[in-house]
Amino acid sequence: MKTSCARPPSILIILATILFSISCANSKQVNLHMFFRCLTNNSSPFHPVSQAIHTPNNASFLSILNSYIKNRRFLTSATPKPLAIIAAKHISHIQATVICAQRYELEIRIRSGGHDDEGLSYVSNNPFLVLDMFNFRGLYIDIASETAWVQAGATLGELYYKIAEKSKVHAFPAGVCPSLGTGGHFSGGGYGTLMRKYGLSVDNIIDAQIVNVNGSILDRRSMGEDVFWAIRGGGGASFGVILSWTIKLVRVPSIVTVFNVKRTLEQNATDIVYRWQQVADKLPKDLFIRAMPQAVNGSQEGKKTVQVSFIGHFLGKSESLIPLMNVRFPELGLQQGDCSEMTWIESTLFWADFPIGTPTNALLWPSKADFFFKSKSDYVKEPIPKTGLESIWKLLIEIGEKGWMQWNPYGGRMSEISESETPFPHRAGNIFKIQHFVLWVEEGTETTNHYLKFSRTLYKAMTPYVSKSPREAFLNYRDLDIGIASSSNNRTILLNNARVYGSKYFKGNLDRLTRAKASIDPYNFFKNEQSIPPSPSNPASSL
Ligand SMILES: Cc1cc2nc3c(=O)[nH]c(=O)nc-3n(C[C@H](O)[C@H](O)[C@H](O)COP(=O)(O)OP(=O)(O)OC[C@H]3O[C@@H](n4cnc5c(N)ncnc54)[C@H](O)[C@@H]3O)c2cc1C
Ligand SMILES: *[C@@H]1O[C@H](CO)[C@@H](O)[C@H](O)[C@H]1NC(C)=O
Ligand SMILES: *[C@@H]1O[C@H](CO)[C@@H](O)[C@H](O)[C@H]1NC(C)=O
Ligand SMILES: *[C@@H]1O[C@H](CO)[C@@H](O)[C@H](O)[C@H]1NC(C)=O
Ligand SMILES: *[C@@H]1O[C@H](CO)[C@@H](O)[C@H](O)[C@H]1NC(C)=O
Ligand SMILES: *[C@@H]1O[C@H](CO)[C@@H](O)[C@H](O)[C@H]1NC(C)=O
Ligand SMILES: *[C@@H]1O[C@H](CO)[C@@H](O)[C@H](O)[C@H]1NC(C)=O
């Protein structure tokens, strides 16, 4: 049993547990040794796997581990470390890792960009290995067919940069942070400023390659439509190792317009946000306006206020945007001087908070984990009343500038796609999605607990204003507070547990996900704290 060592069933048998843990730890060492031999046996002789293995004895271990940790909450000495990192350099290293980890009962975590908000791609409470994908960052853009092929370890910044090298009028709908890995980001949904026009990343994926539990390489045809459906929003980590995606590029005008207009409470932010809720999801698809409330120092010494940033992205020139805003959302008072016109690729830098004029190769720069953070998410289906907004502002002022929310409008293309088209179910009927974010730089468990508590308090206070039964959540804003998988092997128990978080992330799509899981990984090798368990009722895969 893989997990019995880590989770003693009762204090009464603690001695037995300690003895068992010791023998278990030894057997893990033996397993690890056998695992490495198995890796060598199963890897291509022309691509020695030894060059891909980093154990704590290799000087490279910590730098490799840490370079793709994006949240300092999981960059402490107390964070559980892997037994080894396999930074695959050849497909056979990935296949061998899957085959051998199963044979020697070692858990694996798959990591692409390393942004998982709860560190699930590189932390586990069980003895585990990290299968690192950062060497798999190939990219091929084909403008003639308006498609691209991108490997799982490539970042969004690399993808955007390569598209722009080939065309100024093509783009891909995905996130705003350039260092996100396509392996995790696409398989969890993937949204950004083009969402109202073109939907999510998963709505624009046409093929994928994965390594399954047997070490076979499958494409859309050989994995079948259920699994291909599942990895487009159900998370990759439950189904196999994603090697690459084939994506459909989308068209953008050669000039787009961006703005960031800020309004404090004294400048009628409450009224404007209230109005924003009425229009943001109904505006033309070409226009995406995010609202971002945050506490700031007021003009009066020592007095805080809330400032709401309205950050806009328009697929067109400002000469079309201004009259549109004057008709549809005059309360914001958008002026020509607030607008900047640029190419789409330059707009990706703007959204990543680079100053206007930054060279586009900044999209290729590695990012550092220089802060601690906690994310949560919510969906809003009815406008929040002004009294509600005021109570939210009060809480934001209490937490200070370390906590904020991003309100991302839905509607447009998002409402045209059915809830079951992909595992991502949050489509028509949502005005906007909230990302709750708390970010801090001070170290220490006490500080961390303080901010985690704050995040939970704010989340609780939002209950009256957000979706209910289930309280929906976005998989890419991973949040272990909303439920954790059982460590049991009993499928009924696993499924009951998975319903808690799975219904929030996937609503009615959970059942199809568990069937897809049963067809590709019936013995649940690919698992983590919030993975999809195999359907208990699938006769083809009963234990
Ligand atoms: C600063 C920041 C900004 C963000 N901005 C956005 C945004 O604009 N839009 C948005 O939608 N999301 C956003 N996110 C969330 C982000 O999309 C998710 O965290 C996503 O999972 C990151 O993918 P990754 O490959 O970088 O992470 P990883 O931590 O490597 O992976 C995340 C999950 O996917 C699994 N996984 C990774 N690679 C593979 C693979 N090759 N095969 C199978 N499973 C795999 C991991 O095991 C893990 O469970 C943001 C997150 C951060 C921290
Ligand atoms: C590796 O292969 C050798 C020779 O084929 C075999 O003797 C050995 O048992 C294998 N080891 C593992 C761990 O598979
Ligand atoms: C790690 O150390 C082992 C043992 O010395 C060696 O075989 C392996 O090649 C090293 N890994 C890397 C990536 O250098
Ligand atoms: C706020 O709204 C009031 C009443 O609608 C208006 O008179 C005032 O000019 C507005 N203030 C700002 C800064 O827009
Ligand atoms: C806000 O004011 C406090 C003191 O009242 C100060 O410590 C802090 O740095 C200020 N924050 C910003 C962003 O200016
Ligand atoms: C699994 O758990 C369910 C619910 O607790 C129980 O009814 C069932 O007997 C268990 N199955 C096995 C095989 O232990
Ligand atoms: C894995 O291999 C076994 C044995 O060959 C086979 O029965 C099973 O269907 C395969 N599983 C998958 C998911 O391909």
From TrEMBL:
Residues 78-252 form the FAD-binding PCMH-type domain. The keyword Signal applies. PROSITE patterns: FAD_PCMH, PROKAR_LIPOPROTEIN. It holds the Pfam family FAD_binding_4. Residues 1-27 form the signal peptide. One of its GO terms (biological process) is cannabinoid biosynthetic process. One of its GO terms (molecular function) is FAD binding. InterPro entries: BBE (IPR012951), FAD-bd_PCMH (IPR016166), Oxid_FAD_bind_N (IPR006094). Keywords: Disulfide bond, FAD, Flavoprotein, Glycoprotein, Signal. Its cofactor is FAD. It comes from the Eukaryota. Belongs to the oxygen-dependent FAD-linked oxidoreductase family. This is FAD-binding PCMH-type domain-containing protein. The lineage of its organism: Eukaryota, Viridiplantae, Streptophyta, Embryophyta, Tracheophyta.
